[in-house]
Design brief:
CATH architecture of the largest domain: Beta Barrel
Oligomer: single chain
Strand order of the largest sheet: 2-6-3-5-4-7
Radius of gyration: 21 Å
Largest sheet: 6 strands, mixed, barrel
Strand content: 25-35%
Low-confidence stretches: 25-50
Helix content: 10-25%
């Protein structure tokens, strides 16, 4: 670097920092939030178990999924009360409780979502509307299977 002038040295430092940042962010960019793993693939998500359910985060399907096939084979319809979960069996009925306003809705699991560090359920647009979080996009929830609820 002895033959480089001050501008050249500065350029080398800037490129080194940018390359370093790029390398450190690659694992974050590798996660594809729209990827749908096949049923049974991936690890089960562990969640904080509370009396009568599992607490986690809920989101809802984007409009672009309207009419697409779910893991169960049926088409996603935003007006139906359905949801995607990484590990609950397809066809399971669950009660989802919004922990902010205590509104609740019963939905049927008919799709898979990718396993994540924070337990997650993806709800249909109608379920999100009934829970009151269409404008928020993400809320803390408690998910209780209907069988568990009746015990």
């Amino acid at each position: 670097m002895a033959s480089l002038d001050l501008g050249g040295k500065l350029m080398v430092v800037v490129l080194s920092v940018l390359l370093s940042l790029l390398i450190h962010t690659l694992p974050l960019q590798a996660d594809d939030p729209t990827a749908r793993p096949e049923e049974g693939v991936g690890k089960k998500v562990s969640a904080p178990q509370r009396a009568g359910g599992i607490e986690g985060i809920a989101t809802y399907y984007a409009n672009k999924y309207n009419g697409r096939r779910t893991s169960s084979g049926e088409r996603y319809r935003p007006e139906k009360l359905t949801a995607a979960h990484p590990s609950l069996p397809l066809g399971t009925q669950v009660r989802v409780v919004n922990l902010i306003n205590q509104k609740e809705v019963s939905v049927r699991i008919n799709d898979r979502c990718p396993p994540r560090k924070v337990p997650l359920i993806d709800l249909s647009r109608e379920a999100a509307k009934r829970l009151g979080f269409l404008r928020r996009g993400v809320i803390p929830v408690k998910v209780v299977t209907i069988e568990e609820d009746n015990i």
